[in-house]
Design a protein that fits this description.
The protein is α+β, with helices and mostly antiparallel strands and 122 residues long. 26% of the residues lie in helices and 22% in strands. It contains 3 helices and 4 strands, in the order H-E-E-H-H-E-E. The longest helix has 17 residues. The radius of gyration is 15 Å and the shape is globular. 23% of the residues are buried.
């Protein structure tokens, strides 16, 4: 669970660094009815990532060029590895907010509660 928390915090940090005053960031969790998968997503209204750069930024040491001066190029590679280690995958693309959408998709078998919005033991 700590690794997933770290992966989510990485995505939120990326969104904060990619946006400016007046931009929006949305964090969401939903369960896909058709597959039972749990999708944890971070969307922003920043500049986004060009489609041709998407495969590069998820690789180890992959960076978005000069726009990412502070990053090491490991963050999204780690998010991908953590997602896969939990039986899921990582998706990166365009957000409905206009910027980037990053999502960790986990298999339904990872959900402990029947209703993902009800805390375990409630």
């Amino acid at each position: 669970m700590a690794k997933l928390r770290g992966a989510l915090l990485n995505l939120i940090d990326n969104a904060v660094r990619a946006t400016g005053p007046g931009d929006a960031i949305a964090v969401g969790v939903r369960r896909l009815p058709a597959t039972g998968e749990l999708v944890v997503s971070v969307d922003d209204s920043g500049p986004g990532i060009p489609d041709e750069e998407l495969p590069t930024v998820v690789e180890r040491f992959g960076r978005l060029g000069s726009a990412d001066r502070e990053g090491t190029g490991l963050g999204l590679a780690i998010v991908t590895a953590v997602s896969e280690a939990h039986g899921g995958h990582f998706e990166l693309g365009r957000s409905t907010l206009g910027g980037c959408r990053a999502a960790i998709v986990l298999p339904g078998s990872r959900i402990v509660a029947d209703d993902p919005m009800v805390p375990v033991g409630a």
